[in-house]
Write a structure and sequence with these properties.
350 residues; alpha+beta; Heat Shock Protein 90; five-stranded mixed beta sheet; two-stranded antiparallel ribbon; 9 helices; 64% helix; rod-shaped
């Protein structure tokens, strides 16, 4: 939740600070702030000379502000040419000192309140300090804008990298699944051609879902459950002693999940439940309560082959990685390997 809030805040800042539509408003705000400060400052001159002095100072500060923002910072500071940037700032300060003294000398006869000599240097120092603040403010604005752009680029790069990794993980899952199904159809072709025909028809539906529907970022949970039911029905055709139950609780209509998220668990359940000596089963349970999806897969274990379920193989490694990418900090995966049964429990915050 905190990460989503940070992302939304970054998007808002980016929209306000970088969007060309708001450029004129940003400049008007800068002019308003600077003008308010200058026009409300005290000068020892009567009108209209006081107004002339303030306008002159305002124009010079604008010159410093925009020169630093659009010339010195992008051409020197951002290109790591620090000596050139410092030299440019020094030139600005020198011009400021010269300008302040020219104004003081030219308008000295028109002063209404003459200052003591000690305060002359103080007024020039205040003017130079104002220049330094203007340079610092314009530099900070450009640095902030650059930080926002860099953050956006990093986020886009991370998103592209994550999407590429997800596609690679899906391509690692799909061939494994397809190979298993074609192998089953090949076995049935020799033993029971009629069953083999049924297998190929259902396999066609599975592949259609896999090739087209599952390419979307998210699919309906009901569609993914239907896909798993077809997969289990294929196994029922091939194995007479196999039982599968798919139980659904809660309001699952309209719920969306990442595609092919559960097939690895079901594939492993079918694989390690094979036993010619006893009845075998795979039970699936889906439940949605308070925006939390609970998936549970329970399967019997082979007694004759004594195969230990693969809890660290490539398939489970891939699905764990997908969960980390798609639901970071929003899922709990619990795998229990018992003597007679294997249980997978996955909870996802939707």
């Amino acid at each position: 939740m905190d990460q989503q809030i940070d992302i939304q805040q970054n998007k808002f800042l980016s929209y306000i600070w970088l969007n060309p539509r708001y450029r004129i408003y940003r400049h008007l705000l800068s002019l308003l702030l600077l003008g308010t400060v200058v026009l409300n400052s005290f000068t020892p001159y009567p009108e209209p000379y006081a107004f002339y002095v303030k306008i002159s100072i305002f124009c010079f500060l604008l010159f410093v502000f925009y020169t630093n923002m659009y010339i010195l910072v992008p051409k020197f500071l951002f290109r790591n040419r620090y000596r050139m940037y410092i030299s440019g700032v020094v030139v600005q300060l020198s011009l400021s000192f010269i300008t302040a003294n020219i104004i003081r000398i030219k308008l000295f006869p028109y002063r209404a309140l003459p200052y003591p000599p000690k305060q002359e240097g103080l007024k020039v120092g205040i003017f130079l300090f104002s220049i330094i603040m203007i340079v610092a403010a314009s530099t900070a604005i450009k640095l902030f804008q650059r930080w926002i752009r860099d953050t956006e680029r990093i986020n886009e790069l991370e998103k592209a990298t994550m999407q590429s990794e997800l596609e690679q993980l899906k391509t690692q899952i799909n061939p494994h699944f397809l190979f298993n199904m074609l192998n089953n159809a090949n076995v049935l072709t020799q033993k029971d051609p009629e069953k083999a025909s049924q297998v190929l028809m259902k396999l066609s539906d599975l592949l259609r879902y896999q090739l087209y529907d599952s390419t979307r970022p998210k699919v309906l949970l009901t569609a993914d459950i239907h896909f798993l039911e077809d997969f289990l029905n294929l196994e029922k055709i091939r194995r007479d002693n196999f039982e599968s139950i798919v139980n659904k609780q809660g309001d699952i209509s309209g719920v969306q999940v990442a595609p092919l998220l559960f097939i690895i668990f079901v594939e492993n359940a079918v694989k390690y439940s094979m036993d010619t000596e006893k009845k075998t089963f795979v039970h699936l349970h889906f439940e949605v309560i308070n925006d939390v999806l609970t998936f549970k897969c329970i399967n019997s274990k082979s007694s004759s082959m004594m195969i230990k379920s693969d809890t660290s193989g490539l398939g489970l490694t891939n699905v764990k990685r997908r969960l980390e990418l798609l639901y970071p900090g929003k899922y709990i995966l619990d795998i229990k390997d018992k003597t007679d049964a294997f249980t997978v429990t996955l909870k996802i915050i939707l």
